[in-house]
Design brief:
Helix content: 25-40%
Order of helices and strands: HEEEEEEHEEEHEHH
Strand content: 15-25%
Shape: elongated
Number of strands: 10
Distance between the termini: 63 Å
């Protein structure tokens, strides 16, 4: 009886070298792809944020980015100083201040819910809400931008400061659906309480940090500054995809604006006020 012939055994050293080479090549390809697309991804995210500002502050024609610090406010640069809070100042065609916008974020049911809210200095209240990005359950969590009763919470949500100007007079709080009694409370969506609370926490944390730094310096923002690299004009709306947006249209808009800066700033189109669903759709495509 002949003996069974065993297959040759690959030396472990050769296997390790081969795996190491494959891992190195894959790592280089991943880093190269990341670095090669990072600028475009960041630019698209910036456009999504700017569109959110124009959404929550109707009538804005121009937006400037700022940071608020313990020493005052200044135009936003490439790097955000430690402890600074970023915000957007929106101006009308005449250069008058229309409102302030800032981003808030908090953990929702499935992922972080990021929103853009408008702040009216005269009313000391939040007067608008838009969704920057979210991955909540369709048909439940996404009601934060479709439920009209929920959106009414943000027509005049009280965020005034205490007498010493160092904190909110009352923390923004989400309450059980149908039990709202105070101007600083948010009436939750029945069946989407977790997502509702994420919106409330995001706004509260953002306003708590931003407003004590911003409010004492509002006079510096009353008129629009001279044009700078951080300014954005009301962008044109390009059809494409559900809700009128697609990643292609965003990239096209970015290229168009960089090659043909609009002079004078464009007025925001009527389409910017037609609903809330486009904002989450846009953010999904930008961040996916």
């Amino acid at each position: 009886m002949s003996e069974a012939v065993l297959p040759p055994v690959t030396p472990s050293g050769a296997m390790i070298r081969t795996l190491g080479l494959v891992a190195t090549v894959c790592g280089v390809l991943i880093v190269t792809a990341y670095e090669g697309t990072l600028d475009a991804v960041n630019a698209n995210k910036k456009i999504a944020l700017e569109r959110a500002v124009f959404k929550v502050i109707p009538g804005a024609a121009k937006v400037d980015e700022y940071v608020a610090t313990a020493t005052g406010i200044q135009p936003a640069g490439a790097a955000i100083p430690e402890g600074a809070v970023k915000f957007y100042a929106a101006y009308d065609q005449a250069g008058g201040l229309k409102g302030i916008a800032a981003e808030g974020a908090a953990k929702g049911y499935a992922d972080t819910v990021r929103v853009m809210y408008a702040y009216d200095p005269a009313k000391q209240a939040v007067t608008g809400l838009g969704v920057v990005s979210m991955r909540e359950t369709p048909g439940i969590g996404d009601k934060i931008y479709t439920d009209e009763a929920f959106l009414k919470n943000f027509e005049a949500l009280d965020v005034q400061l205490s007498s010493d100007m160092k904190a909110l007079a009352n923390a923004v709080k989400v309450v059980k659906h149908g039990t709202k009694q105070n101007a600083w409370e948010i009436d939750a969506i029945s069946g989407a309480t977790v997502t509702s609370k994420a919106v409330g926490r995001g706004i509260n944390e953002s306003a708590r940090k931003l407003l004590p730094l911003l409010v004492p310096n509002l006079e510096k923002l009353k008129t629009a500054p001279s044009p700078n690299a951080q300014s954005a004009v009301s962008p044109p709306f390009i059809k494409g995809g559900e809700g009128g947006f697609s990643t292609v249209s965003i990239t096209h808009t970015l290229t168009h604006l960089s090659q043909n800066p609009p002079q004078p700033p464009l007025s925001p189109p009527g389409g910017i006020e037609k609903g809330w669903r486009w904002q989450a759709h846009l953010a999904e495509e930008v961040t996916s």
